[in-house]
Amino acid sequence: MTLEVMPATGQIGFPILSLIIFLPLLCAVALAFIKDDGIARKVALGGAVLVFALSMVMAFFFVPGSSAIQFAERAEWMPELGVGYFVGVDGISVLFIPLTAFLTVLVMLLSWGSVRYFSRAYLIAILGLETATLGVFASLDLLLFFVFWELMLVPSYFLIKVWGIGPQRQYAGTKYVMYMLVGSAPLLVAIVVLGVNHLNATGEFSFAFVELMATPASLGVQTLVFFLMAFAFAVKGPLFPFHTWLASVFSEGPVGMSIFLVGLKMGIFGFIRFAIPLAPEAAGEWFWIVAVLGVVAIIYGALIALVQPNLRRVLAFASVSHVGLATLGMFTLSTQGFQGGLLMLVNMAIASAGLFFLAGFLYARVGSWEISSFGGVARHMPLLATFFFIIGLASIGTPGTSGFPAEFLIFLAAFRVHWALAVVGVVGIILSAGYFFLYYERAFFGPATREAVRTARDLRPREVMISVALVAVIFWIGLYPAPLLEMTGGSTDALAERISGGPMAGAGVENVAARE
Q1: C-alpha 403: how far from its chain's center?
Q2: Distance of CA 23 to CAs 56, 214, 363, Å?
Q3: Going by C-beta distance under 8 Å and a sequence separation of 6 or more, which residues neighbour residue 503?
Q4: CB–CB of 4/69 below 8 Å?
Q5: pLDDT for 196-229, tens place per residue?
Q6: Res 504: pLDDT
Q7: Pairing between strand 69-78 and 5-7?
Q8: Per-state percent for the chain, helix, strand, coil, to nearest 5
Q9: Are residues 49 and 20 in contact, defined by beta-carbon separation less than 8 angstroms?
Q10: How far apart are CA 112 and CA 119, in angstroms?
Q11: 174-186: b or e for each residue (b if 16 or more CB lie within 10 Å)?
């Protein structure tokens, strides 16, 4: 399979992706020389807004319905090893650049008055994490991708250790880094195997995604690469049973860090970006293992969330359930499943992260994450309760919200592959609705038993701005998902067609034919 590459200079006239990726890092460097915290906050917010604006410009000029790599930039880095600077986006990755920038702006607004100490260092860490995350989504050289993948650990560790809210935050930060390093080792091995396979086939090294896609690989090589990558991406996901780092990090880490973790599922993105397209025959052979793990995660996450007394842990295990749902969709290996999985990742970036924003607002007022401490919130903080309810509806896939088209496409694909997987997945959706309404009733209604709730102020203008932005995106995607489906359609069609041994190989071909 050969992918067309559209250079950024010919498409938009300047290297927009490099500017988007490295502008946050430049702002972070500038913050190191700014002594006034107030000015530092304004510079950080201004840089984040500019990155978001550039990402929207990129999305506007993106050619929808095409499977080509767009806004591509290539430069030699280590030519003797076939390693280069290669970034670009297609229908699979294009949505995650604006999403990352959007969440960063909201995190900056969230931290405006809530970070009490080392605020400049906190902003530097957030901006550094944004650069690494954008690099992960845009990298098309696998070693460059691995560099950004590893660089995410540096700001993440300090965010958890220094600005975490729990007494075990240092342990949680160390646990997170160790888990990610354990996952990274097989990922690096898989990348080396692909490079050596390319060397054997062509006589030279290359780690460029488009060239590796065109390099033939035996089923044995593909199987090795697929399972090595699957392990790495499952740990990062996190996908059951590799999720055990999640609860401690969410319980101990800062809200801003949790928003990145729950909203941007780079591990699940890695499946559709690299594992499936680079090992298509192995994905078609072993898809059922990952699909079953996805279904187990749906049920497991929902059941564990159902018995949690702590709101952060409820949201943490709810995200495990949603990760399973996205995984199930992607491993139907069909256009509908790929698009549903991508939309589910988008919904998690809006709805799941949105619930963490609102939970953070509630914690700032009540000083506790225990659900038993929140009675009477709806009476004393009606705006907060209303926005939490709307965003919660999106998280459980209510029609009209951003979660519905994602779930519809996932189950449409899943029922065509195996009805039993789909039925179990539906049970998980029912459970998720059950724990949301159960905990919402407990936390937001009833008498206010704590003075902190009775005297709490409702959402401030800055918090209303964040909530309105999230709700606007939720209803836009829920009521009119067509632009997103058109942007992703070309790449998901091409990927479904590539999976010649997959259970839904014909679906992608049929969709391509229909479009033509």
Answers
A1: 14
A2: 15, 33, 32
A3: 284, 287, 332, 333, 334, 417
A4: yes
A5: 999 888 888 888 999 998 888 889 999 999 999 9
A6: 37
A7: parallel
A8: 75, 5, 20
A9: no
A10: 9
A11: ebbbebbeebbeb
Q: Which amino acid is at 184?
A: S
Contacts of 32 (CB under 8 A, 6+ apart): 120, 124
Contact 495, 287 (CB under 8 A): no
Q: What is the pLDDT of residues 110-168, one digit of tens each?
A: 877 667 778 888 899 999 999 999 999 999 999 999 999 999 999 988 888 888 777 77
- Average pLDDT of the segment spanning 350-369: 84
Q: Helices in 418-504 by DSSP H: which ranges?
A: 419-444, 451-454, 461-479, 482-498
> By CB neighbour count within 10 A (0-12 exposed, 13-18 middle, 19+ buried), where does 114 fall?
middle
**276 and 408 Cβ atoms separated by less than 8 Å:** no
Q: What tokens does 230 get?
A: 């699957």
Residues 6+ apart with CB under 8 A from 428: 295, 298, 299, 301, 302, 321, 324, 325
Determine the residue type at 342.
L
246, 187 contact by CB (below 8 A): no
User: Which of these, 361, 336, 359, lies nearest to 496 by C-alpha position?
Assistant: 336
Nearest partner of 38 among 105, 104, 120, 128, judged by Cα: 120
The values of phi and psi at residue 5, to 5°, are -120, 125
For 236, residues 6+ apart whose C-beta sits below 8 A from its C-beta are 180, 183, 266, 267, 270
Structure tokens at 424: 């179990």
**Three-state secondary-structure class, residue 369:** coil
Backbone angles phi, psi at 66, to 5 degrees: -100, 145
Other beta carbons within 10 angstroms of residue 470's beta carbon come to 25
Amino acid at 188: L
Q: Tell me how crowded residue 465 is: count the other CB atoms within 10 A of its CB.
A: 13
Q: How far apart are CA 199 and CA 203, in angstroms?
A: 5
Give the confidence band of 477 by pLDDT, cuts at 50, 70, 90. Answer: very high
Geometric angle at alpha carbon 406, from 402 and 412, rounded to 5°:
145
Report the relative pairing of strands 5-7 and 83-89 from DSSP bridges.
unpaired
Cα–Cα distance for residue pair 336/492, rounded to 1 Å: 8
Q: Cα(372)–Cα(356) distance, rounded to whole angstroms?
A: 18
Per residue, the 3-state secondary structure of 141-174, as one string, reads EHHHHHHHHHHCHHHHHHHHHHHCCCCCHHHHHH
Query: What is the rounded CA–CA span in Å between residue 345 and residue 478?
Result: 14
User: Is the torsion defined by CA of 213, 215, 218, 223 positive or negative?
Assistant: negative
DSSP H or E run through 231: helix 219-236
How is 254-298 classified by DSSP, letter by letter?
Answer: -HHHHHHHHH--HHHHHIIIIIHHHSHHHHHHHHHHHHHHHHHHH
Question: Nearest 5°: CA angle at 24, between 18 and 25?
Answer: 85
